[in-house]
Amino acid sequence: MLQSKLFYKTSKEKSADIESISHELLTRAGFIDQLMAGIYTFLPLGFRVLQKIENIIRKNMITAPVSGQEILMPALNPKENWQKTGRWESLDILFKLKGAGDKEYVLAPTHEEVVAPLAKKIIFSYRDLPFSVFHIQDKFRNELRVKSGILRTREFMMKDLYSFHATQTDLDEYYDKVAKAYFNIFKECGISRFTYQTLASGGSFSKYSDEFQTVSEFGEDTIYICEKCQTAVNKEIKNENTKCPKCGGSVFEEKKAIEVGNIFKLGEKYSLPFNLKFRNKDGLEKPVLMGCYGIGLGRLMGAIVEINNDDKGIIWPKDVAPFVFHLIQIGEAGKVVKVCKAIYKIGQKLGIEVLYDDRKDVAPGEKFAEADLIGIPYRIIVSEKTLKANSAEVKERSKKRAKLIKISQLTRFLKTQ
């Protein structure tokens, strides 16, 4: 991508109403743009990151042992489905709207009310179980207060997986498999070292559910980490139990955190309203047991930035970075331009993601400052000075020192990073 053609604009100034590091940096670096409170446009840089996150999640949901099948459910839901579960009246974050003939609808914040009646058309016997489906789609929640940029919004992209089981044992085993897959996702996204599987109340579903909380000073949740076994619990569980549910320890470290995912054993909660049942081996009808597993993509993106930054800007982990290399041309000398274009062409030929700062009339200092703000993992600088040594200067965004690499060795370097 030529930076001179990139649809973006950076800002040097911090906004007075910015509530989190991720909001500040993503806005200033030209990744997102606020349309109104809780509603954001993802600009090309931001959308590329969102797609990387989406692909990481999809890969982990499709492959064994999760083995989910991807579908796409509608965002516009009939009122009647939500009345069957009682959530038309009880859920205060619903966006409700009227269509032709005064028919009423919900803009879905989640999809139990769609997937349960859908599964009823497929499940009849124990032979049809277990299975799981997921989709990645926009959700809508009429939050009373939105905050911290893309960490809490009214419209957001979410992956929700739903599993269907004949026995509690099967649900329990699958639940643990998804939890492990979540940590694979967080590892690829560069936040696993700061993320805890956190015990939360299961409500009417089960004794516990699990939140995945990433420690951050700008998090809106509070978690308590057992100093003995490193098990984390949320505030509700801590208030109910003064000792660790896992090891019995009584000393906890309090931390602020961002919830980047959650998993629930729903049991019969949404099967019964839709009469979702199956016949077991003895020919008896039993309710299907369900689990649900969510990750908010925008919130995960925000959490990545909360963890990976310094006083100059974002430091993207390579697997989610908008580009892997930031090629910066310094000066308009013929040889400099020729070498930069050759490097860029090699990157295109190899299918390597390169953002080429080909802009004229932009000072080197401004280019470097903007590169630090945007946070692409590797910076390649070509100037008359570096070419005197037949080299380019290469610097990792996460490191202080740069090094010279011979132009003749750059192709190999691009391939190996």
Low-pLDDT residue spans: none
Average pLDDT for all residues: 95
Structural class, by secondary structure, is alpha+beta
| CATH-assigned fold name of the largest domain | BirA Bifunctional Protein, domain 2
Shape: elongated
CATH class of the largest domain: Alpha Beta
Tell me how many strands there are: 23
Oligomer: single chain
Radius of gyration: 25 Å
Helix content: 25-40%
Largest sheet: 5 strands, mixed, barrel
CATH superfamily of the largest domain: Bira Bifunctional Protein, Domain 2
Label the CATH architecture of the largest domain. Answer: 2-Layer Sandwich
Describe, in plain words, how this protein is organized in 3D.
With 417 residues, the chain is of the alpha+beta class. It folds into 2 domains: 3-310, BirA Bifunctional Protein, domain 2 (2-Layer Sandwich), CATH 3.30.930.10; 323-416, Rossmann fold (3-Layer(aba) Sandwich). It has 12 helices and 23 strands. It has helices spanning 21-28, 44-62, 79-85, 87-90, 112-120, 168-188, 235-240, 297-307, 334-350, 364-374, 384-387, 410-416; strands at 32-36, 39-42, 69-70, 76-78, 95-98, 104-107, 131-140, 155-165, 195-201, 208-215, 221-226, 232-234, 252-267, 277-279, 285-287, 289-296, 309-310, 313-314, 325-329, 354-357, 378-382, 391-396, 402-406. The strands form 6 sheets. A 5-stranded mixed beta barrel has the order 9-10-13-11-12. It has a 5-stranded mixed β-sheet with strand order 20-19-21-22-23, sandwiched between helices. Helix 9 (334-350) links the parallel strand 19 and strand 20. The radius of gyration is 25 Å and the shape is elongated. The two termini are 18 Å apart.
